[in-house]
């Protein structure tokens, strides 16, 4: 759709209630249940997230680029 034609996408996530969705959106296969997962196919996505939203990513010790943790 239209969002994929954007030059750059900035996704902002905050709160522990977003942690699992944030992880599944970027570190598992693209899944219609996690609509943001389609962003894996975009060339220029930056994620800005607070510590709580990043918790699952930290726990699974996955490498991440273009994520800014606040």
How is this structure best described in words?
By secondary structure, the protein is α/β, with parallel strands linked by helices. Helices cover 21% and strands 19% of the residues. Strand 2 (45-49), helix 2 (55-60) and strand 3 (67-69) form a beta-alpha-beta unit. It starts with 8 loop residues before the first strand and ends with a strand.
Topology:
Elements (H helix, E strand, L loop, with lengths): L8 E5 L5 H9 L17 E5 L5 H6 L6 E3 L1
Parallel strand pairs: 1-2, 2-3
Order of helices and strands: EHEHE
Indicate the structural class: alpha/beta
> Beta-sheet strand percentage?
15-25%
Main sheet, how many strands, which sense, barrel? Answer: 3 strands, parallel
Kindly, what is the distance between the CA atoms of the first and last residues, rounded to a whole number of angstroms?
30 Å
Estimated helix fraction:
10-25%
Helix tally equals 2
How many DSSP-defined strands? 3
Radius of gyration: 11 Å
Taking all residues together, what is the mean pLDDT?
88
Global geometry: globular
């Amino acid at each position: 759709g239209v969002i994929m034609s954007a030059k750059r996408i900035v996704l902002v996530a905050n709160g522990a209630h977003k942690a699992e969705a944030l992880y599944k959106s970027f570190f598992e296969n693209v899944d219609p249940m996690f609509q943001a997962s389609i962003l894996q196919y975009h060339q220029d996505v930056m994620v800005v997230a607070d510590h709580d939203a990043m918790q699952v990513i930290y726990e699974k010790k996955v490498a991440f680029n273009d994520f800014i943790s606040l």
